[in-house]
Design goal:
The chain is an all-alpha fold. It has 6 helices and no strands. It has a domain of 69 residues. It is 61% helix and 0% strand.
Length: 128
């Protein structure tokens, strides 16, 4: 989406003058963080007591856990989500391990856990 925005601006005939850029920047100063805080607050408020965001939403839970972790690597909400995901990966009855098996969901979970170093206490069972 960001790339699309840059391409649209680069190829469009709209030219932002330095004055317009300064006026736009000064009027929106602080807005990006306000939006980020709103998103993080929403994630915490909608996280289930088990750390999930609902049945069959493991991939979205992985993304939410990563966002929460990026904001605060000691976040209790991120830890709860990663604990939930760990449990789901090790549970052979998880929907994504059933035939036909889903490779994308476990992959997204493992990617999120790996890039946040939330793999140190995990021992994933090999699913065959």
């Amino acid at each position: 989406m960001i790339l699309s925005l840059f391409l649209t601006l680069a190829l469009s005939s709209i030219v932002l003058t330095p004055e317009a850029t300064r006026a736009r920047t000064s009027s929106t100063l602080g807005q990006p963080r306000l939006g980020l805080d709103s998103a993080l607050t929403w994630l915490v408020a909608h996280e289930g007591s088990d750390g999930s965001y609902g049945d069959h939403y493991e991939a979205q839970t992985a993304a939410a856990a990563y966002a929460l972790w990026l904001n605060d690597s000691k976040s209790s909400a991120a830890k709860l989500a990663y604990d939930y995901l760990d449990h789901r990966l090790n549970e052979s009855s998880s929907w994504f391990w059933q035939v036909p098996r889903e490779a994308d969901v476990p992959g997204e979970i493992l990617l999120s856990a790996a890039i946040t170093n939330n793999t140190t206490q995990r021992s994933y069972n090999e699913q065959s």
